What we know:
Elements: H1 4-24, H2 58-63, E1 70-74, E2 78-80, E3 94-96, E4 102-105, E5 136-138, E6 147-149, H3 150-165, E7 182-185, E8 191-194
Antiparallel strand pairs: 1-4, 2-3, 5-6, 7-8
Amino acid sequence: MHDNDRIRDELWSVIYGIWDYIKNSGKFDADTMTLEWVGSLPGKREYRRLLGDYVLTQHDVLAQTPFEDRIAFGGWSIDLHPPQGMYAKEDGAKQRFADGIYHLPYRSIYIPALGTSQECHACHTITEGSRESQSRFVCKNPACGWIGNADVNAARTQLYRYNSAAGRAVTGRGGPAPLGPVKRQAPHGGTTRTTPQRVAA
Length: 201
């Protein structure tokens, strides 16, 4: 997620190297060919894994596991790409197809909102009395003191949970790793223990 510039430069070097070969090797009828456009932002995918109440697995897709809480259907294959990327000597992608469509359960895409109206998005603490009214949030953590709209605070907290879930570990079986409670600083030297929310993909 943090190496966009390096990836872009590497992709450009490959693209322009191939284009130079096409234009100047004499092996292609390329005298009148032009390179119209090359993107400048790498398009990444499959670099996040969100852990929630349920994680959809390869087995679910291929076996077309039925889910009562399904909200959509998938039909795209599972693509397995070699980690070496464009430098791999093996085939570029291996695909696994289900025998038709498969279910996408609600449990695998929602973001739990429990406590987002009480947790400060700036310091991620829950302190008594911070939600002063329906529209006003004033963080009572002495180390923070953020003041603003309560709905904006809750939305930013949900965004934080969404982004945080991407970095959490998974077990060897693909399930969520055990998560313990996290200590949060509260006013007057006390601590409020909040359990991390698991966010679904």
